[in-house]
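I have been asked to look over a protein record a colleague put together. Alongside the sequence sits a line of tokens, each denoting a local backbone shape. Please read both lines and tell me whether the tokens look consistent with the sequence. I do not need a full report, just your reasoning and any doubts. I have pasted the whole thing underneath without changing anything.
>
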Amino acid sequence: MNFNIAQENLSHYLDDKQGSVILAVTDKDPIQAQRTHSKEVDDFVIQLIEHKDVTSKVGSTSVIPMPSGSRLIMVGLGETPVKPNNFIKAVNAAALALKTSSAKTAAFDLRDISVEGKESTWVAQQSAQAFATAPYDIAHCKSKKEETGLAIECLTFLADASLEKDVSFGQAVANGMTLAKTLADLPPNIVTPNYLAQEALRISKEYTAFTTTILDEEKMDELGMGSFLSVSKGSIEPGKLICMEYQGGKSDEAPHVLVGKGITFDSGGYSIKASEGMATMKCDMGGAGTVTAGLALAINRGIDKRIKLFLCCAENMISSNAYKLGDILTYKNGTTVEILNTDAEGRLVLADGLMAATETGAPLIIDAATLTGAALMAVGQDYNALFGLDKALVREVEDFASDEFEAAWPLPLEKWHQDKCPSPYADTANSRLQKGGGFGGASNAAGFLSRFVGNEGQGWVHMDLAACFENNAGPQWAAGATTLGMRTVARTLLEKA
């Protein structure tokens, strides 16, 4: 889909039988449709509103065929002044409605849309992002694809020409989101650790500011990453530690580091998952996708710091080589861990990644992972959970998430959470034997991770990505990866790196 910016009247687009015009409706300004500059159409729309055939309810859409063959797409913005979050919901809903309209061209007038506390640049960015993301299709592996979203050839934003760069920025964000969505939504027989490694190498060839090193199992063994290897050895697909560096800052300064969980399929191991829990475990690499897309967004926003990515990629499978309950693993910092739950594998691979991050001397470490079902139980699928021993940093990240309209909520983490998974045979267990890791399971998992970061946990924040995948389509996105968390990562890098 191509995007244009123009200053024409909407009436021009209503004459196109293959076109659509998107009109916004608010509670106190129901005749915004007069911007069409067609008295006949304006009178018709006002009549629709008066008869309550369309509504200003946030995100509600109505697709109305016109005599010329064009379509009006009416979208509700809610109360005035329009809240930023309501605008995001509305523009995403409008984009999905346009996707199903089979129109070849469309126009959306941004000139009279005012969003509380936001400049027109923000409105343009959000609009472009929404419409560029909408054509994304999760049916990568269907033999017959639905013919929706592909028909739209051009979308024109009626806005000041100075907003062209903001529209381009919104498109760039959408491209990063689409990559993250695709990697999470493709099936696990395609997306393996090696597939992710090849994608990382492709990115580094395309963008010269990146360098990428892939550590295979032999090299990880040399570096003492035995717990990572204990997880990966159960699969015929070898594990990979993907190390990417963005050289945006001085080479002699310590990098800031992102660590992502990249479990491309999680059977649960010998603590095997039920089928309903296992079916969506292609999404267990959501942490790797989130931090990679977050860095891409920060780069688009102009970050000029040295950033490293450690993506911990493996499969968690069952075989004669797989690790077992009762095994005791030893990390290179000397910590011994008894395995009480092979389905608590994410924290085992992340711990090696966090130690690698700490060794760089990074002043800021962010890890992101679909780590625990306990976080889902605590905050649901609309929030990500935040943890950290650096309380000031956690509060800041919560604020950044709020500013970016990504819901996040801090859950408890104290130093004593390190001792909440006791073992009589090792320094700690990797979980508790109770379902979900027992009471406070998400905090206990974060406590486990905190054993492997330096500086008493200062400068480190852990994101448990409860909101990054939704198996059912919603009003704002298709089924699959949501990329929620990406903006939080990007904003934290921009503000704290």
The CA atoms of residues 6 and 158 lie 5 Å apart. The chain has a mean pLDDT of 91. The longest strand covers residues 256-266. The chain is about 35% helix and 20% strand.
